[in-house]
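Q: Structure tokens for this one, please.
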Amino acid sequence: MRVLSQFLTSVSDASRFPPPTLPEVAFLGRSNVGKSSVINSLLGAKIAKTSSTPGRTRAINFFEVRFQGKPRAEMIFTDLPGYGYAKLSREISSQWPSFIEPYLNDRPNLALCLALIDVNVPPQESDRRLLDFLNASGRTVLIVATKADRLSSNQLHNVMKTLAAEFPQAQVLPFSARTGTGREEVWRQIRSATGLQS
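A: Here is the predicted structure, written as tokens:
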């Protein structure tokens, strides 16, 4: 499946969100969890900027997504600011009420939230708060366990069991942007949540 994508806009003010037309898929996670790498892996292109410096994303970035052979975009990927990085967490936390909370709470076309958790780092309190927030908002959530290639199959199995027990309200899928593990499974969940079977 070939995916075509393009950057649409970057927004840090709820009044400037694009019109809610297409289904949207939000990518959330702690700083340095690999959000941009996951987006780029799913899209097959380096459209989201990756950085070794945590907290580079300070706005919600919107990307149009179109499947090859289709005349127009069919969904939007949204890349949200990371959280939990000590130097930036206070600054980013102060931004949540102005545009991140309204987006997650009120966006009518938000079809799926991908909560990214690094399998090499035990779930943090900030991860739990995010999952609780999304649960309270009534959002459909998929937990994507990133950087899965860094663990042995036995270690990964144990981590997946831990995540499933800790967050029983959401399905958990392992993912590796480097090897492509989990790419098809995540796409299947995205297509299902957005009502697209192509």
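A few notes: Helices lie at 35-43, 86-106, 125-136, 153-166, 183-194. The longest strand covers residues 3-11.
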